[in-house]
């Protein structure tokens, strides 16, 4: 934070505090109800479609932290009234203008509150943060206390309000009227006052009997988060106001001192300045240390517990929506700041409002990642809190130690070891890792046990609690010895003094200049942060290697920032240990990671971002100390080794104070004003506080010279660099890329501003949609392929999953923007359900079968698949029937995946939104889905995703039952359409097969259900050759997945039957995915060209037409074909495992290895029909086997002989195993099996030379055949040799029944 908080050039950023503010009640304006609350009521009314004046009349109970607004069901003491900034000093600072509305709202988020002498009136401390639109931050520290009301007028007004209120309560209790409560309101309501007794007890204010108190607050606004020091200063001021004696100097002296005379400590130094009663010490980390953070992490861990905190931390890293919920503002702030501190070196880039004022509740509607804190009310039930969107929400109930996480949250890498390491640090400091539940006794007991152990552990610097002689303590410690000598001189005796542990600690206080406890807090903070920072240093140790530095100069980089890929994500992920991937693949898509990489690239041209500088220097350090090669990623957990030195540097700074500020002193004030009155904060003299001292003290002059130097440098860089305004514009654009509205404006809350904010959201969502769809396309196709309009569009696996998950998240956010009434956790699914309900009603009313028109229309050409109906409702029903999915968010995601796979996402959503009456009912006017033009563009962007094939549904839901439809298409002209024998079929896919299924007699179409087969690869089809018409000529088999609509064609073009073709009774067909081109298909505008790897021409092997009718390929083409087929297999194995396609297609498909080798064996094959009988390659193979089995003549060289013998043996063994297999496979089918087994077991290069030298070759092959040419055979062997290194696994269907 220190990086972003430092004000820009032209300022004097050296002051510790920028403003001192006083807020409270304004005696002149009296009691005003909180206007912001009224505005909120107006918004609520708008939400419910009422006019705003009725909203004020009816007591709409508003979701406001203490039911602000003139809400007459509230007892007047519980109502909130308008607070006001009573004074702030100085009036304004140019580099940090005073934002009165925001400060007032955040100092008193609930407005003014009243108490009587019977109520608890302890002062409360809280802090806040104002984030400006450019992301820079200012911190506020507030102490709220109660002051007696002296204004008669206000007391009387309160009495009157009470009388009115009680009268109304009586009547309402007797009438027992039920008030209409908004669910939100009731969640934060006081609880219905049920009995009159209760009413009396609580609702009493009697002007004659009771003293009325009102809240007032004092606040410091500072550029850096010095929380501890500011808190001490404010508490001392408050003590001065309430103590019996007036303070040593007027309060103005102390305030003037902290505003104008206390500088910020320089980096790496500590500073002492003076409060009213005692000195206050603060310190600031050096340039190479972790940035300043002063919020106690101890509290954050105690409040949430370690496990929960790490889960919330993971949600923050993945930029989910985080809603913190607690009664206590400071807790909200502590957890929010604690977690964002731990993000180092990354920074939260989105909406950040740790304390959400009541009037800004509509911000929970923001369709962007946010981190917000909402104040809960005592006794409120979480279930009553209705939030606009929960699909991607991490809900953190701080007070109840409870979190709700989004579904499918990936684990943080090495989570268990990480938690173990943090808990070791926590236990050293006596903090139980499970957190400190205020209600659980065991937790407290455990804590005490641990603390006792620590207290009695001398090494830890604590002292056993028994009494000890001081001399024991003093021996050998010169600092204490000097103190002791001093004490003696001043007459204090310590000889006989016995001390208990706390006294001993006080003794040390003198030495440390700040309380032991505080030092422990600082040490714990820094050690915990070191552990977290070390995790990122280890995980991203070599991130630099993957940064793409494309641009030559800053200007060209900034102008083309949107089009540029600046981080090589795929290579980075391929380098990471497998278990890290689910988390990392999401994380590198976040805005915080993108900004981090942008800063890295920008650092070529300008000063490094402070966070980046520290992080890079740590990586350097790791490289120096680490012996391991930096290129090797390891998942071995490496603990943080810098804990000790980090704690020491802080301890040294606090032991030896580097700077001391000027003491507070008397100012030139008018006498008699601002008289001290116990319990009342005096009216300060504004003239002395309006400006600082004129004398040129040393730090002011020092800052002036550095400022002049900076100005000179700046002018210089402006001359040589870009025009600064232009650069700033580019920078802003670059930083806001993908970010929507960075920060809500807290000050101006007119409806116009709210509308404009929503408009920014709409624009941001559209931009994000454009970026995401483009990213998904580019990932799928690769840059070149997109430009050339082709490419193997088939990435699967991790990268795709991440992108699709982030698309689901974007759609959920779009659907929850501007929602009127929320139902269920998923806004999209809720909309779909309401649409389904309406459509089904209309269907029942119409009840006409016409809708099914095209469903079963058979085409005139003969049998084909009936057209699959395109219907949004149908797809929803498929999802609803999936018992595996238990939640609405899950159903919405499954539906998006299914629509994406069917290339119907854009079309379905268009159909969903075409019902305008429903959209109007569900969404407010400003919602994204009701902005015509943006909605059209959004659907258009989604339409572009139809350019690639996704299998994101099939590949994720692998265990569901899926209906398939199969159609067998015979060639009628040449054979009978139906066979008399009993045909059977078995369909296989990447995830399994159907098993053998009998095809019903006389039917060529069948439907069946089986567990998801994944992408389909092969079909085995055959029959038992019974009956008269047993021969069957099959053109192809078509199989369709009835849920996703994916249709596969399995070309055959061969006979099945004895004594025809190659005598095969069964064939293995290789499938290819085809794309639908039917006219009825509504989706025809969004179809893709067919996949490159499987052209749709059916595979007609040249085997049947050996008479030479079709043009045969020449020798050159055949050799090329072999090279191509082998090359494709090599490429297949070089892809990441999750991204490989089907190996079966590469082996047995149209241009596969089997087909290429068939061409080699056919070249020069003497195929004249001998007695009208075709001769096949298998005939040659069998002759070769017969020869090998009978002969014993091999070469002379003994080694060669052994080798050839073993090769002959395996060859004969394999061929015989195939011939005797219990399958009715034809001769070409047998050759296919032989090639597949030979490839798998790496025997092909040994077998081919045997065949080339076998005597049968001269009888069966021409002189010019390739197999008879030594050179060609050798080059063929060299090519096949390249497959030796790969572990080839064959699909079961290819080699079923063959036992080798």
TrEMBL record:
Pfam families reported in the protein's UniProt record: dDENN, DENN, PLAT, RUN, uDENN
GO molecular function terms noted in the UniProt entry: guanyl-nucleotide exchange factor activity; small GTPase binding
Domain RUN: 798-958, 1144-1293
Signal sequence interval, chain numbering: none
Location(s) in or outside the cell: Membrane
Biased composition (Polar residues): 692-706
Assigned GO CC terms: membrane
Region (Disordered): 692-714
Name of the encoding gene: DENND5B
SMART domains: dDENN, DENN, RUN, uDENN
Domain of life (superkingdom): Eukaryota
Protein name: DENN domain containing 5B
Family listed: Belongs to the RAB6IP1 family.
